[in-house]
From TrEMBL:
This is Nucleoside-diphosphate-sugar epimerase. It comes from Muricoccus roseus. PANTHER family: NADH DEHYDROGENASE [UBIQUINONE] 1 ALPHA SUBCOMPLEX SUBUNIT 9, MITOCHONDRIAL (PTHR12126:SF11), NADH-UBIQUINONE OXIDOREDUCTASE 39 KDA SUBUNIT-RELATED (PTHR12126). InterPro entries: ComplexI_NDUFA9_subunit (IPR051207), NAD(P)-bd_dom_sf (IPR036291). One of its GO terms (molecular function) is protein-containing complex binding.
């Protein structure tokens, strides 16, 4: 098997004669053996309990698991919301504040993924079967200097996992875009279509490093397959940071309209004007906390993502092309 696999990698298969036929047969056996090994390893993952399976990241993960032939168990609060995804599978109903129901929903799982908010990590850790590895979804919001309930909850969830003896990881994605129904770049594009000028604090010089949903899903799949000796935290983000103003322009180009001019403006007037946007029909709501975070750099080292998970994220232009397909 090793020889045949080596010949495949080296391109040493010579078809059209008996020797080539022998190589091809050996190569087929090698591939079958490698696939058998992979399937045996994957069998130890199954079933994968997916908490929050009806959400954007959860449903994307379930589609990927189904495509790879891995069995999964959706754990959701609403059977109707799960049915709306169009995915097969009988859901287990459990509210994360209902410890007995959550414990029953997770019983017998080979791996557990939670796409729910990381603040629920203590409840999940308490309900999960002993020793079953856990993959949690956090957020790079945990690094923001602008404290809010979301970021505080992520920090608390990370602390709970790292203080436990549970093998697993909490993945901290940067801004996620490209998911079905996501409201990050889609909402931004809807706003920019209506604006002749884009007022940005500091002229949009702060850095952002968004990640496409497909890379988030690949990272979760890799985390499921990795053997975690101790609990860890790993940031997952796009390949490189860009200025927010350049990100804005890239979104406009991908959505098919010219970007508005960027106007540097102090943060205070924007904060004062934000509530007024709610009075204008057709404009999405912009929260004050979102404006504040536009003033801080969100740039991250993706080396751990690449080395621990083996995921090389796609570039922004490619990701936006997938998000705004040609019409």
């Amino acid at each position: 098997m090793t020889s045949a696999a080596g010949d495949i990698r080296a391109g040493n298969i010579r078809a059209g004669n008996g020797e080539g036929t022998g190589y091809l047969a050996a190569a087929g056996r090698a591939r079958a053996a490698l696939e058998s090994i992979r399937r045996t390893a994957d069998a130890r993952l199954e079933p994968v309990a997916v908490i929050g399976a009806s959400g954007r990241s959860g449903s994307s993960l379930c589609r990927a698991l189904a495509a790879e032939g891995l069995s999964f168990r959706p754990v959701v609060r609403s059977a109707a919301r799960w049915a709306a995804t169009g995915l097969a599978g009988e859901p287990r109903l459990a509210d994360l504040t209902d410890a007995p129901a959550l414990r029953a929903a997770l019983a017998g799982a080979g791996r557990i993924v939670s796409c729910a908010h990381a603040r629920h990590a203590p409840a999940i850790l308490a309900a999960a079967p002993p020793g079953v590895p856990l993959v949690l979804m956090g957020s790079t919001r945990r690094f923001s200097r602008w404290a809010d309930d979301h970021g505080d909850g992520v920090r608390q969830g990370e602390a709970a996992l790292l203080a436990s003896t549970r093998p697993g990881v909490i993945l901290h994605p940067s801004m996620i875009y490209g998911a079905q129904g996501e409201d990050n770049v889609q909402r931004l594009a809807a706003l920019l279509r209506r604006l002749p000028l884009a007022p940005l604090p500091g002229g949009g010089r702060a850095l952002v490093q968004p990640i496409h949903q497909s890379d988030v899903t690949r990272a979760v799949l890799a985390a499921l397959r990795r053997k975690w000796e101790t609990p860890q935290a790993v940031v997952i983000a796009g390949p490189e940071p860009v200025r927010y103003a350049d990100f804005l322009r890239a979104v406009c180009r991908a959505a098919g309209f010219p970007p508005p001019g960027v106007v540097p403006i102090p943060l205070a007037p924007l904060l004062a004007a934000a509530p007024l946007l709610r009075l204008l029909p057709g404009l999405p709501r912009i929260r004050a906390a979102e404006l504040r975070r536009l003033t801080e750099d969100k740039a991250f080292d993706t080396a751990p993502m690449r080395t621990l998970l083996g995921v090389a994220p796609i570039g922004l232009e490619e990701g936006l092309a997938l998000t705004f397909p040609p019409r």
